[in-house]
Design brief:
By secondary structure, the protein is of the alpha+beta class. It is built from eleven helices and ten strands. Helices cover about 50% and strands about 15% of the residues. A hairpin with an 8-residue loop joins strand 2 and strand 3. Bound molecules: fe (ii) ion (2 copies). Keywords: Oxidoreductase.
Amino acid sequence: MQGTVTSVAKTRVGERFEELVSKHPIWQNPLLVACARNELSLKDYGYFIAQHFYYSRGFTRLLSALMMQCEDDKFRAELSHNLWEEAGEENMEERHSNLLRKMMNDVFGIAEPDSTDFKTYTVSYFDECLRFLKNTNSIGAAAFLGWGTEGVVANIYEYWYEGLLNLGVAPEALRYLSIHMECDDDHAAVIENIALSQCGGDIAAHAGEIETAIYKALDLRNEYFKAIYQDITTAKIEPLVTAICGKLPYLNTDDVSVFTSSLAKSSGVKLYSNQQQNEGISFEVSRFNIGCEVMDPRLLEIPEGCRNECHKHAHESLFYVVSGQGRVHIGDEHIDVKVGQLVYVPRWIDHFSENTGSGTLSILAITDFGLTKHFPNNTDFSYRKKQHTQVA
Ligand SMILES: [Fe+2]
Ligand SMILES: [Fe+2]
């Protein structure tokens, strides 16, 4: 704890390294950004925290590697306090790895986190950390594990903690995270002071090796989190890819009766509408659930003299004009359309349609939303303006 640390004016001399940490690209890591934007589901958290369990379970080995590097018995005594807390103090059942086992069970229903299919990137991340600690000197090892590791834990866990609270998880179930948010700054202070104490009063002479070690720790974690994020994203489309490669039909042809629909609005499911008459915006969208897996047919209807709002999304769309006459605006392009015409709208391009004729403009939009809905931040409503009326 704080009272046991070597007395070095840490907050003054260590500040330059804290600033270095704050500038590292890890704070723009897509996994942390997705947590902050509440784009991840409980299942996503369960998946990546189960991977993280491998690191958490092995953490005392990292601490021990630093201890091994310290020749000064006083430093080893200080580190033993960190280890003591990691080990649950008097109650070994309360050791931090066990608190995470309990959280995995209580929050994600993962009863055997030790049996997780740990990915290669998870194992490599831990091995690289251990390798660095074993092969550097005690200043580098302490910098790696202080500023570069323990020093960022409270911040990182706060992203996870807040994200899980927002998903409705009770704070009591997140004790593993909250304990670290409370104690890891103290743990970091102990380790950082070990690094600084060994500089013999000449921090500048060792600044280079300290900075290199800090960046090594943060780079490794940044790459690890990127791999996790990539995995979370692709895992969602894996069943689709497996089915396509395995030539498995999505639905049984016994269900063929539901594979048809009339294009009448009444036979669709209302998806959303928006009326902002002062801006000339008025439209309704219905979806046809006719068994498609990836394609998602929708009917867009715009009354005479009106348009829909300008928006963009991950799915691409093929517009087919069913009735009426209009103009489709795609980026800087403006395309006049009439009955029977097709228009392609690429992904992530601002677009809107306006009714320039008489009567309703009806457009059948076939999108690949069945694929892109698996990607974060592409729900049906995330890209719409606030004032819409959500129907379904
Ligand atoms: Fe811990
Ligand atoms: Fe659209």
